[in-house]
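S.,

As promised, the zinc ion run. Input:
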Amino acid sequence: MSIDKLSINLATVREQWDLREAAEACARHGITAIDPWRDQVAKLGLSAAVRVIRDNGLRVSGYCRGGMFTSPDAIDDNRRAIDEAAALGAECLVLVCGGLPAGSRDLVEARKRIADGLGTILPHARACKMPLAIEPLHPMYAADRACVNTLAQAIDLAQALGDGVGVAVDTYHVWWDPDLEAQIARAGRMRKILAYHISDWLVPTRDILLDRGMMGDGVIDFARIGRWIEQAGYRGYTEVEIFSKRDWWTRPGDEVLRTCIERYRSTLM
Ligand code: ZN
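Predicted complex:
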């Protein structure tokens, strides 16, 4: 199975390598696309990051991340993220939309602020031709990271906002959803699937943030969800995104990339 459509989200090797080292390693392994994080780009400098990515012949399947609309300074920060994503030639800017503001219990208001924030940055994103990908996060993150928690909710937002806004489907966050098949199909009909991220759900999950699994080590049926994604007409990259403090971040980066490629081949078919 070809790995032409495999992308590596650089969170997966963030403890092993900086952006330059990770880009060179991906190229060495025959990987053709990456999704860098803003701190990784900032550390190298934007223009050096652009050069490193180009010199290694890599595409940028997405840029992580914007969003956090319930934080102060969100609008200016998102405009900067859009500019960076455009400079990098990213296919979309991935948005983690933000949780409850500190001290608040008003989930309804937080969700309204997210919709308002998206609407505020959208003209700039459209001017830069940078699609915004709303990523719904598992409900356990509703308080502190994102109170957009289901694919249906993300598609509703994207639909209301119109052109230039879609969704990122991340298996770790949405695998449990009884409505997943129908919502993937719905997003496909609307041509709003902008990114597909994969990592596995381990049993037990010891740390909701930093204990994501390698595909095949947990309980997610990647072949089935991948079929739904394909049937929905998505032809973009499948991006491996693994935050794994105790396991994969402790292993040599080359071993991680080799395993990503093996598991991509063995679990997605
Ligand atoms: Zn993701």
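The mean pLDDT is 97. The chain has one domain: 6-266.

- D.
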